[in-house]
Amino acid sequence: MELILTRTLARARALDATAMVWVITAVLLLILIVGPTFFLIKESIFVPDEVGLIEVTGHYGFANFIEVFTNDLYVSPIFWTVIVSVSVGISSVVVGALMAWAVARTDIPFPGMIRTGALLSFVTPPFLGASAWVILAGPREGWLNHVYRWVTGAGPDSYMFDIFTIPGLIFVMGLYVVPLVFIVALSGLNNISSDLEDASNIAGAGTLSTMVSVTLPLVLPALFAGLILASLEAMIIFSTPAMLAIPAGQHVMTTQIRAFMQSDDYQVGLAAAFALPMLIAAIGLIWMRRKALGRRGYATIGGKGARRRPQKLGSYRWLAFALCIAPLGCSLLLPAAALGMTSLMKTYTGGVQLSNLTLDHYYFIFTNDSVSGSIWNTLLLGAMAATAGTLLAGLIAYISQRRLVRGHQFMAFLATVPIAIPGIVLAIGLFAAYTREPVVLYGTLWILFIAYLTKYLPIAFQTSNAALMSIHPELEESARILGANRLAVFAQITVPLFKAGLIASWILIFMPSIRELSSSVLLWTTKTKVVSVVILDFYEEGRLDIVSALGVMLMVITLFVVIIAYRILGRDFMRT
Amino acid sequence: MIKRVLGIALKSGVLLGLATSPAWAGGDLAMAKKEGKVVWYSSISLPIAQQMCNAFNDKKMGFECVLHRSGSGKLYKRWVQEAKSKIFEADILHTSNAGHFLTLQKQGVFIKYAPEGTEKFPAAFKGEGGYWTVLRSFAYVPAYNTTKVKGGDIPTSWLDLLDPKWQGKIVNAHPSYSGSVSVGMSMLVKKFGWEFMDKLSALKPRVVQSAVDTTTYLVRGESDVTSGTASYTLFNAIKKGEKVKMLLPKEGVPFIISPQAIFKSAPHPNAAKIFADWTFSKEAQQILTNRGLYVGHPGVKYPEGQVPLNKLKLMTMSPAEATKMRKKIRTTFRKKFGV
Fold first, then answer.
1. What whole-number distance in Å separates Cα of residue B278 and Cα of residue B285?
2. A89, A295, B192, B253: which sits with the fewest CB atoms below 10 Å from its CB?
3. Do A118 and A328 contact (CB within 8 A), yes or no?
4. If pLDDT is split at 50, 70 and 90, which confidence band does A307 have?
5. Domain residues of chain B, as ranges?
6. Can you name the residues that pair with A357 across neighbouring β-strands?
7. Is residue A153 left, alpha or beta, with left meaning phi > 0 and alpha meaning psi from -120 to 50?
8. Are A73 and B334 a contacting pair at CB < 8 A?
9. What architecture (CATH level 2) is domain A345-576?
């Protein structure tokens, strides 16, 4: 009798757990993905007839799509978005792959330095790079153009670099996408043993022909994945084009979306109609990447793949090093120098002189209420999103890896799918969903929190998943056999082993959250400004001195987090 | 039935209450202290706006000035969006787009209020209907970098700015983001016709988002001339020692007024009135004057180096007309300038 009771209770409890997981998943899906997507689609087919200050009446139809895809004004941003993404994709794959090859496969000097540099430029906010490059390569007063004139003796009107051009835009975007490709390509290369390259060398092929005809085909899937990631990143980024393309008189899709949202007229529908194709393109790209990686290269990857022998570069060693360090110099050292110096200068005219130095701009950002408030908001939001995201991702990874409940695949799906939602598209969806009854989140930090959580959940999930995969269930099983219940096992066995993975997830959400702009730029309100939005505001007001001071502060915080991460987790914390 | 009677009684009671306390009555300090703060949506550049707030807070009135600073267009959009979501945070609106004030006034979102002392202000500083008062004003002026442009090259007319020699060397702000640019360009187009925009766009100007930013481009030497910037930004740059100078074209310069009004939905109505009174006091208006702005207060002293208002030949345009032209200015700009 007692036994039956216990069994029924146990079953009820199991059912309970399943039901609870289902309910939680459903609610989260609804809040994070279904709601925003639904309202995004609804806005895109809502055509306003009469626009009052508060009330807007209209009907449903496809006029927004027709307007967006036939009006030359809006077709041009689409065209240039495609051109820019493809160019950034291809150029950064070439550069990133060569760097990865040099670091993984040759005897290039200081490979660790290149790897660290790539990591640091990967975590540098791209909008800081863009503002720094305005200082460095403005056609008339850019530092590099001054150097050019000084070296060549050219006249005051001639210049070598103009950052306010499409090539300039591609260059700056590429600088911050290259590290992404580098990381992807490096892990692809590390999975392949040197046996085939050795065979090629023994058969008489040189370094170059071995690379082209043996190594390259082997990493092709990884490179393709890198190309897709890079193009996607270039398509969805808002900050760099906002800072460089608009002064050049050119919109891309993201800046046009923001222009729609900022218009005095009611253009939310046009923004949504613009955002949907972006979402579809992003989903398509992610799907292609999965396909490419699904092949997992060729059958050369196995447990024995550890042995690698560097190719000898001979006298080209230092040339290769210079080529690898150049993009990192452009994305890290030069911007840091430009921002650092600008942040300390009293007047632009005064130049770099002792009498022209000041700490006023730093004093200003820490004492001005609205600026320091935004710093606080940013850190708070970063910590909130990172903590919630880590717990959620860890839990989902655990449930789906250990197959604890039926339908665990859906949870894994939920945690992965936001990777295909561009930040600015997510923001329009959240904006459309949560500025109306019954759930008004607009105007609170929560809407930004949801945006960050959704956006970065996939990274955390993948990190947790990878970390959990390396913990064999037998450790947990032995504890269960010895009598511990699931919770105790989780707390005392799994979590301690899983700790590094959790910390890595936390950092991987925190870091991008404190510099998030594409979503924040549409979701901030006066009370909920974040640093990235404040930086953009000051940039658009021409206050490069304050932008620089805020930028230096952001870089220092990021560096600090990276150092802590290194200390706790070791060099490879960004492997996944 | 009882409910209905009660309802009517309540409504008429409210009406009665409104009728007995005149709309122009000032704020009650005791109530303001209870409200605790006043929220100011303001488009003056942050350092100046913050200085105003700080100066007010230093007076320790028992409630605090909370500043939310952004561009004119952004603030307007933000308020409308917040109102749609039924978020009412703003007490006072102050921007450089008088047209927005007209639109909002028609929607009945402002209270009628004449801040203390403004009866002595010139008529140009008072809005029709008594809903708003001009807090500060400035001229939309062309300017140049003195190390780059010299002698005979210095423009003396707006039309000189359209010379092909400025190709790639001129910077222009965007009328969709900046209220003053929208109004300023409207006046120029009215005077010189739409070909003014055609010829300007043919120079492929650098396009920036705010009238303030054009000064930065001049200061950095990234551009030689600007077809329009806020005179007070220029004044401050010159005071700092930057090598830029104001141009005074013979045709005159657009005069941009920046009104201020109190929302009906203000969550801190008494604090709002007391703060508004203070912003029009001699003390506050002098702060603005010292920063290169022009104000309506007759008692202020203009700083050294400031071009007196009576030396400027002013072009003006009624907010109603500017509002009418706004849309066409923006769409034409978008077509001609690409963004």
1. 9
2. A295
3. yes
4. low
5. 26-136+256-302, 138-255+311-337
6. A345
7. left
8. yes
9. Orthogonal Bundle (1.10)
- With vertex at residue A288, the alpha carbon angle to CA A284 and CA A293, rounded to the nearest 5 degrees, is 150
CATH of domain B138-255+311-337: 3.40.190.10
ipTM for the whole complex: 0.80
Residue B68 near residue B56, CB atoms below 8 Å: no
Max CA separation in chain A (angstroms): 99
B residues 276-335 closer than 8 Å to A (CB): 326-327, 330, 334-335
Does A343 reach chain B within 8 Å, measured CB to CB?
A: no
Q: Nearest 5 degrees, angle CA B214-CA B220-CA B224?
A: 65
Q: Is B151 on the interface with A (CB under 8 A)?
A: no
**Same topology for domains B26-136+256-302 and B138-255+311-337, yes or no?**
yes
Where do the H-state alpha helices sit in A250-401?
253-262, 268-294, 317-328, 334-342, 360-367, 369-401
For A542, residues 6+ apart whose C-beta sits below 8 A from its C-beta are B208, B210, B212, B213, B214, B215, B216, B217
Q: End-to-end CA distance of chain B, in Å?
A: 60
pLDDT at A12 over 80: no
- Tokens 């540098």 label which residue? A124
Q: What are the residues whose beta carbons fall under 8 Å from the beta carbon of A70, sequence distance 6 or more?
A: none
Whole-angstrom distance, CA of residue B6 vs CA of residue B151: 79
pLDDT digits 0-9 by tens, B55-113: 999 999 999 999 988 888 888 988 988 888 888 989 999 998 898 899 899 999 999 99
Surface-to-core class of residue B314, CB atoms within 10 Å of its CB (0-12 exposed, 13-18 middle, 19+ buried): middle
* pTM assigned to the model: 0.86
Distance in angstroms (rounded) separating the CA atoms of residues A524 and A381: 12
Q: Are the beta carbons of A368 and B50 separated by less than 8 Å? A: yes
What are the CA-CA distances from residue A129 to residues A55, A356, A555 (Å)?
Answer: 41, 24, 11
Query: Chain A closest CA to B74's CA: distance in Å?
Result: 7
β-bridge partners, B170:
B225
Domains A72-342 and A345-576 share a fold: yes
- List, in sequence order, every beta strand (DSSP E) within A155-222: none
Instruction: Decide if A348 and B219 are in contact by the 8 Å CB cutoff.
Output: yes
Domain positions in chain A: 72-342, 345-576
Residue with the larger pLDDT of the pair B268 and B23? B268
Q: What are the angstrom distances between the C-alpha of B2 and each of A386, B7, B12, B15, B271? A: 55, 8, 15, 20, 37
Question: From the list B89, B174, B326, which residue is nearest A526 (CB)?
Answer: B89
- DSSP element (H, E) containing B332: helix B319-337
The fold of the B26-136+256-302 domain, in CATH, is D-Maltodextrin-Binding Protein; domain 2 (3.40.190)
Report the C-alpha gap between A44 and A64 in whole angstroms.
7
Give the right CATH number for A72-342 from 3.40.50.720, 3.10.310.30, 1.20.58.100, 1.10.3720.10: 1.10.3720.10
CB atoms within 10 A of CB B251: 14
The answer to whether A409 contacts chain B (CB < 8 Å) is: no
% of chain A beyond a pLDDT of 90: 52
Q: Which residues in chain A are contacts of B74 at CB distance < 8 A?
A: 262
Best A75, A246, A264 member to test B by mutation, with max B CBs in 10 Å, is: A264
Probe site for chain A from B44, B65, B87 (most A CB atoms < 10 A)? B87
Question: What distance separates the 2 farthest-apart alpha carbons in chain B?
Answer: 84
CA B99 from centroid of its chain's CA atoms = 11
**Tokens at A98, concatenated:** 């060569």
- Which amino acid makes up residue A470? S
